[in-house]
Write a structure and sequence with these properties.
It contains 10 helices and no strands. It is globular, with a radius of gyration of 20 Å. By secondary structure, it is mostly helical.
């Protein structure tokens, strides 16, 4: 029931004289709705964005795609991903990662392989070998470890820099 009041407030704010359409305002609403699997409301908010002349960016479309995937609506999620591919803003890293994670959970190996190939081509030179390896590990091992992986990478770089400095000072 809380979502009805959130949506009511959302619509009331849009009617205020001081209101100006803003992507972040819509993105936050989409994020809230998507996390709670409120697909039809996400679709409505997305349509409202278009009516107000705001083209949805990759963040907004990723939230909608996530809602579809959480509800097991793969065709709609892929349609949203295709919108990102064909739009003025290509899918970003989070969009690829969310889609790849859910495709793996759903057991869609062929589709996942195609999307992963596109992901690796799109981010060639940006995604390092550790990232490629990490993508191939099981979901159970990776659940929540993305931040830990980044932290360990930073810590290892810092320790390398510290050892380099210590070596330089001893010379």
């Amino acid at each position: 029931m809380m979502f009805c009041s959130y949506l009511q407030i959302f619509h009331m704010v849009r009617k205020e004289v001081w209101y100006k359409p803003d992507n972040y305002f819509y993105k936050d609403m989409l994020c809230c709705l998507a996390r709670n699997k409120r697909v039809s409301e996400c679709e409505t908010i997305l349509k409202d964005m278009k009516v107000e002349g705001l083209p949805p960016d990759s963040l907004c479309l990723t939230e909608v795609m996530t809602a579809y995937l959480q509800c097991g609506m793969l065709p709609q999620a892929m349609e949203t991903f295709d919108q990102m591919r064909q739009g003025r803003v290509p899918p970003d890293l989070p969009a690829f990662k969310v889609l790849l994670r859910y495709l793996k959970r759903m057991g869609k190996r062929e589709l996942r392989a195609r999307i992963k190939k596109e992901y690796l081509e799109f981010y060639e030179g940006i995604v390092d070998d550790k990232e490629k390896y990490r993508e191939d590990e099981s979901d159970e091992e990776n659940e929540g470890s993305e931040v830990e992986g980044v932290i360990s990478d930073v810590e290892s770089r810092e320790s390398e820099e510290t050892s380099d400095v210590e070596t330089d000072e001893s010379d």
